[in-house]
Structure formats: structure tokens, C-alpha cells
């Protein structure tokens, strides 16, 4: 069977979501239902020349509700320059952390405030505000009855000096709010990923210009275990298979790499795809484990080339086998969820081929 035919067989397109510069997709389920949050970077400004870092960033993040097999508009949160939403729960309390990279319509301000909301009486109520600089992603994780929020942030722009803290960092929950816990050396953070394996705790950190790293918990804090010096770090994902711990690392400038942990280091075992990989979504389907490699752009921010497809791999015999690709448009994220026994996939698209923000994101039925 041809690769494109098999790729088409794995996904059935169900719904187009009218997003603008979508940067992430966050699916979460509460006693109120299943929801989809979509942070948006910007909307197009009439008459403005195409520029992926232009536009009007004073925009909101729509939150859709799942209803009768599709997403319907439900509510929205103010989120200028939206990059991420992270849903998590602590002791039955429901939280949504949001992050935006900037405010304004040009010139832009990279010193912003990230907000932690709590769901109270059917509304998202601001609980805490964090001064941030070039904020990208929140990552919530817990172990040993401790709860952490990782903030990936920072950017290097000529002539811009941050007023807010610029380092990526961890905050810890003290029972009422998150307090500073640990900072990481890095100037352009994108992503944290956490895993517990073999009685140890590991935290990976992706950075665009300062090198990425895997860190191990020493009982008091996370200390470096292994570093990856190349530029372009975007995302990490961990998973277990065949009794071993595996790690995927997406590098926007090179390729995505599969690593296997040998007990001391993560050893590279496979290279997946080429430049443009931005995010990774692992799916446990009916037919096995799949990987969606979300592809964004190549080139530079001033001269970007939109990658027109993302890829689907299937886990087989200790490696990922490419089984299909599907049309996307500067895709930024993917999220999978199950409803009534059927698995679905949502993908955020951020730019059109003409470098315009107004680009639909897509809901698919996943058939694997």
C-alpha cells in the first residue's frame, strides 16, 4: 500500500476550527465535559506585509466544548501572543496555566504576565500572576506528593533587554500558590518533559540557543545528567517500551532523534524526518503505539518556508516506522483524546502558505 494511502487511512478529517496563529492544543476533561483550549499568537492586520512575527497579538484563546462529536465555541480567555495552556489538578482543584510571548500590535513587549486560573463556580478565576519574558510553555508534573510547574521562556532579540526574569524555571505548590523552586540556564526555552522510571525522576529541557538537557532528581533538585549542545531544541517526549525508557527529541533545525536509556545515558538509536519538527504526540492506538511528528517551518523567521505536512510513525521492533503523512500548515502542536471508545486527534496550524495567521486547525478521527 502506498504511504499516502495508508496515511489517509489513519486519519479522517472531521472539523475545521477557525483559528489564527494557533500555537498549541490542550484537551482536558472535567465534570463539566471535555474541552479544547487553543492559544493564538496573533491575528492579521489588514495591509500589513506578511511576517510570522508580526500581526496584532492582543488576542484571546478560545476554549471549545466537545458536543455531539465536534467542538463548539464555549468561552475564551484573554491571552495576548498566546503560546500555551496547561490544564492540571491538585487535590481535586482544577487549574489552567496560560502563557503568552508578547503583547501589542508592533512594537511588541516581550515582558508579560503569565496567569494561573482556578475553576471556581463554573468560571476561570485568576489565582496567581507571574512576571515572564518571552514565555513559551507551562509543564505541570508531580511526584512524591509534590507538585511542580515548569516555565519554558526567554528569547534573544537584538536591542531587547528583559525587565522580567528571563530564565526557564520550576515553581512548587505550597498548598495555596506556586513559589520559585529552581532556575535553568538557558536563553530561549521551549519545553519541559518529565518522567519517573526505575525509582528515579527525570526532567528534560529543550532550548533553542543554549543547548538542551536531561536532568535527574537528586533528592533536593534536578541536576544535569546529559546535555545536547546543538541549537534548535523544541520538544522532548518520554515513553516506556520493551522494559526500557525511551526519549524523543524534536530539533527544528535538524531532525527528530529517538534515544534509549542504558541506565546512565540516553543513547541515540534512530533519526526521524528532517528539519521543521516542532512537537511530538504519542498515541496508544488499537493497533499499537503511534507517533505524530508535528512539522512547523524551515528557513528563518524573516524568510520562513511553511512545512505543508506532518508525519505519522508506528512503533515496531524497537524503532518508529514511517506509515503516512498528512497535510498541515506550519503545524505547532497535536493532542489526542478518546470519547466513547473512539480516538481523536487535534492539530493546531499557525500559518498559511502566504504567511498569514488566519489558518484553520483541524480535528480528525484516528483510525489506528
TrEMBL record:
It holds the Pfam family EPTP. One of its GO terms (biological process) is signal transduction. Keywords: Repeat, Signal. InterPro entries: EAR, EPTP. Signal peptide: none annotated. This is EPTP domain-containing protein. It comes from Paraburkholderia sediminicola.
